[in-house]
Design a protein that fits this description.
The chain is built from ten helices and no strands. By secondary structure, it is an all-alpha fold.
């Protein structure tokens, strides 16, 4: 396989799998699933590449074993995030920004959790960055552990096994096999789409809020009545 020409080489799925193998993959899945420092890791493209490499015999690991271990790492990662959120509590919302931590990511995950409730643990698995912070927010909000573990397992299996099996299935298609690098770039771009949509929505809301604040008091009153 050629190197994925998108982003730094140390985030390239092919490079990571060649350098660290299955165990490195599991560490990355665990970190991205619930550790604050894991939000930038390439989860979707990494799982897809794993399935693709296994089915093309470039990764010497049984597909069923990879799926089981990936699901387990994803579930345990969310578990760690939940316990961290429960321990830190509301203080997380007062934590200052740093190179690896942005308050806006916490707010975004909180809004996502408030909008979708417990099922956000399943939906967030397929949204980069949000999937890292959602289990933490679940812990901060005091979500019942029984509900958390149920949705955590469902989300971990659907994402971990689903994306890996998708890569394995598509890897058997001749067109995909001959255009692996282009397919990987497409997967990365697709995983970024939710972030772009969320950014545009937030930007639209900010503009509306700015317009509302700049409107005369009487006009704001008419908007409020509506």
């Amino acid at each position: 396989m050629t190197t994925l020409a998108l982003g730094p080489s140390w985030l390239d799925p092919d490079y990571l799998l060649n350098q660290f193998g299955l165990w490195g993959l599991l560490v990355i899945v665990f970190a991205e699933s619930g550790l604050l420092i894991g939000f930038f890791l390439p989860g979707d493209s990494l799982l897809f590449t794993t399935g693709l490499l296994i089915t093309t015999h470039k990764l010497d690991t049984p597909l069923w074993l990879a799926c089981v271990l990936i699901c387990l790492a994803a579930i345990l990662g969310d578990q760690a995030g939940y316990l961290f959120g429960k321990k830190v509590g509301p203080a997380l919302f007062n934590r200052p920004d740093s190179k690896l931590f942005k308050q806006e990511n916490v707010v975004k995950a909180h809004d996502f959790f408030e909008k979708y409730g417990p099922k956000s643990l399943v939906l967030a698995r397929f949204v980069p960055i949000v999937r890292t912070f959602t289990p933490i927010i679940a812990g901060v909000s005091g979500m019942r552990y029984r509900s958390f573990i149920t949705f955590n397992i469902i989300g971990g299996v659907l994402w971990g096994a689903g994306v890996t099996l998708l890569g394995a299935w598509l890897g058997n298609i001749d067109f995909v096999h001959k255009n692996i690098e282009a397919i990987l770039i497409l997967i990365v771009l697709i995983s970024v789409v939710p972030i772009a949509i969320e950014f545009l929505r937030a930007r639209g809301k900010s503009k509306k809020a700015a317009v509302a604040e700049g409107a005369p008091p009487a006009q704001r009153g008419r908007h409020a009545k509506r």
